[in-house]
Amino acid sequence: MIEQDNRYEEQESPKRAAICYDEVRHPFGLREILGFVRPGDVVLDGGCGTGQHARYVATVAGQVVGIDTDAARIAIAKMHCRDMDNTHFEVASVTQLPFEDNSFDVVLLAQVLHHLKGCDTSKSDVLRRQCKQSLMEAKRLLRVRGRLILVTTSREQRRTAYWHFNLFPQSAWERLDPCWSLTEDSWFTSMVQQLAFVEIGSAAPSESHWFDTYAELMVRRGLDSGWRSTDVAFSLLSSAELDQFINRVNTILATGIAGDLMKAVRFGRTSHGEATVRAYEVLP
After folding, report:
1. Residue 43: strand pairing partners
2. Euclidean distance between CA atoms 130 and 116, whole angstroms
3. pTM of the complete model
4. Of 89-103, 202-216, 245-259, which range is least confident?
5. Are 42 and 62 in contact (CB under 8 A)?
6. Alpha-carbon torsion 29, 34, 37, 42, what sign?
7. So where are the chain's domains?
8. Where is 217: in which H helix or E strand?
9. Checking DSSP bridges between strand 197-203 and strand 276-282, what pairing results, if any?
10. Could you tell me which of 72, 60, 67 has the C-alpha nearest to residue 109?
11. How high does pLDDT run on average in the chain?
12. Taking 90 as the threshold, does the pLDDT of residue 41 lie above it?
C-alpha cells in the first residue's frame, strides 16, 4: 500500500522539531571529538542543538558552554545536562559570539557551517562570508594552542552514505551544491591557513548521525515531516522537489527495495563515512 505523507504539517513548530531531532539524532563522531579534548579544557559547543555532544564532552572537559540559535533546542540541552554543574547553555549565533577573547581551549562546530542561519544557499559569497565570520569568531575566542574541531560532510559522503540524499532530485543537488560543498573548495583551505590554524588530525567515522533501525522503517520515516525536520536540507527543497522525494520513498516502499538502498548506504558509510571530523590548532 502506498503511504501518505503529512506535507501539510511541513512547517514544524520549533518545539516539536527540537523534540524530533533529539529523539532520532545520534551524537556523531564522539570518540574522535573526545580525542582532541583534554581534562580541564573550557569548551564551546557552537550550534550545540539539544546538547547531545555537550553532555559527553562535559565528562572530560572542565566546562562546556553550548550555544544555538534555536531556543527550543537549548531548552532540551539544559534538561539533558541539568545534573551536570560544568555546563551552560544560551541562545546565540556562531557568527557573533558573546564571549571574551582567549576564553576557550576548544571550539566545536559540528555540522554547523553548511547551514548557518540566514544563509542564501544560492549565493556562495554569502555562505563564504558567514563561514569566515564564524571561524574568525572561533579564532578570537581560542587561546594559543587552542583547538578548533569541525564536523563537515563532503559531496561524496552525501552521495554515498545518506539514504535520503540518494532520493533528492538532481535539481536540488545542483541548486544546493554551493551550500553542501562549502568546506571543500580551495578558498576554505586558504582561509583556515590565513587564520593561523594548522590541521592536527582527521577521521571519517563509519557511524550514522541517526539512530539506526531496520531498513523499511528508516525509509518510511521519510514520509514524516517531523523526521524530515531533523535535517535542514529538507527545508531547502522546493515544493516540487519535496513531492519528487515523497514519490520516490513511496515507490521504494511499494517495491520492497528499502533493504537494497540501506545496504548500499551502509557500504558508503564504511568506505567514505557520513562526515569528517577535523581538528586544528591555533599557532602562537
Report:
1. 64, 106
2. 7
3. 0.91
4. 202-216
5. yes
6. positive
7. 7-282
8. helix 215-220
9. antiparallel
10. 67
11. 90
12. yes
